[in-house]
Amino acid sequence: MKHFVVIANAYKDKDFALTNKIVAYIEQKGGTAKGLVSNVEALDNEEFGLNDIPGDTECILVLGGDGTLIRAATKVESLQIPLMGVNLGTLGYLCEVEEATVFDAIDSLMADKYMMENRIMLTGHKRGSSESHVALNDIVIHRKGELQMLSLNVYVNGEFLNTYHADGIIVATPTGSTGYNMSAGGPIVDPKGDMLLLTPNNAHNLNSKSIVLSGDDEVEIEICSRRVQKDELACVSYDGDTTTELAVGDRFIISKAANYTKVCKLHKRSFLEILRKKMESYT
To answer: Following DSSP, what letter does each residue of 229-274 receive, concatenated?
Structure first.
């Protein structure tokens, strides 16, 4: 690899000091690099667009944390360019590289000493609508407004599964298993897996367990009426960003996306080793 883009979280990389060092280092070693900005709310910078990424880009280095990497991955998924996360945050499950090791990592990338992992993504849309979005971690249907539960009918491949009375439903990828899914009591699985994780959030019964589905399954969630005096409203969040509102009677369909997120890996450490070390440092 010789051609890079560096996407930096404007809040994590102050004055883009590390970005500028990385760009200079890559150019010094005979490569090309372009710095772009992510997460620019309330700052005098412009968020990057797909047309800002050169066509010969071979790898995107993402400086920030898991959230920055997830936002970049979903934004550039159509380009299918490999990414590597550089953790400038706290936990960073997805970011293998730390600030102290970033230049060694660049050396390995430029020497083609790396491995590639494909991570599945999700796509979701409201039945009857042509508008869809992708997510790397999860798609969550959750209540809106007042502190009230939702009544949700869940179907898998057209077959009725269950009715959940809960704050919401999380459909997560293996990559997202250590995110909101884990906080809601869902299983942790190897991020290289090809499966969907269905986890009710704060379900109001004694037997609502997470269900692991095939990556080829299609999940459909229907917003049901729970009380006659008032209809509940729900929202759909893709990786934590709310983009769609649902009302009683609406159905929302979730399935595996056509594209993968390609993640560059430098070490053969198992997922369990990474998980253990990250959790030890976090606690």
So the answer is: T---EEEEEETTEEEEEEETT-EEEEEEEEEEEEEEE-----HHHH
Strands 138-143 and 168-172: antiparallel
Residue 157 pLDDT: 98
Residue 25: strand, helix, or coil: helix
121-259 maps to which CATH number? Answer: 2.60.200.30
Cα–Cα distance for residue pair 199/204, rounded to 1 Å: 13
From 13, 66, 138, 239, the catalytic residue: 66
Alpha carbon distances (Å) from 159 to 39, 216, 218, 254: 40, 14, 10, 14
CA distances from 85 to 6, 68, 75, 247, 259 (A): 10, 9, 15, 37, 19
Could you report how far apart the first and last alpha carbons of the chain are, in Å? Answer: 36
Helices and strands (DSSP H and E) totals, the chain: 5, 17
Q: Model confidence over 229-281: pLDDT tens digits?
A: 567 789 999 999 878 899 999 999 999 999 999 999 988 766 777 677 666 65
- Encode 10-26: b = buried (16+ Cβ within 10 Å), e = exposed: bbbbeebebbeebbebb
In the prediction, which pLDDT does 42 show?
44
Domain ranges of the chain: 3-114+266-282, 121-259
41-59 pLDDT per residue, tens: 545 567 888 999 999 999 9
Q: Would residue 66 show up in a list of annotated catalytic residues for this protein?
A: yes
What would the pLDDT profile of 5-24 be if each residue is shown by its tens digit?
999 998 888 889 999 999 99
Which DSSP letter does residue 188 get?
Answer: P
Homologous superfamily of the 3-114+266-282 domain (CATH): Probable inorganic polyphosphate/atp-NAD kinase; domain 1 (3.40.50.10330)
pLDDT tens track for 94-111 = 888 988 999 999 999 999
